[in-house]
């Protein structure tokens, strides 16, 4: 294990121990907060991707088609 990996494992273990030291109610609040933040981050990521797709569509660089078209593109690309 590298020094970095060992340090990360140690830090992660420390976090686990700190969380376990919290009361059950505090742990529930913490988990709820983490879940809400992850959901917000995911929504932001989806928004950014949708903006990229919209821009590609507006520029004419996005491909539009059916699932069969997509599969044909993938299979065609791998054979070249």
In short:
This protein has helices spanning 3-21, 24-59, 67-79. With 80 residues, the protein is mostly helical. The chain has one domain.
What does this structure look like?
- There is one protein chain.
- This protein has one domain.
- Helices cover 85% and strands 0% of the residues.
- It contains three helices and no strands.
- The longest helix is centred in the middle third of the chain and has 36 residues.
- The chain is elongated.
- The mean pLDDT is 90.
Name the helix and strand elements from N-terminus to C-terminus, one letter apiece: HHH
How many separate helices? 3
- Helix coverage percent: over 70%
Low-confidence stretches at least 5 residues in length (pLDDT < 50)?
A: none
Number of domains: 1
Oligomeric state as shown? single chain
Outline = elongated
Q: Profile the largest sheet.
A: none
Report the end-to-end length measured between terminal Cα atoms: 40 Å
Instruction: Give the amount of beta strand, in percent.
Output: under 5%
Secondary-structure-derived class: mainly alpha
Rg computed from alpha carbons, rounded to a whole number of angstroms: 22 Å
Strand element count: 0
Question: What is the residue-averaged pLDDT?
Answer: 90
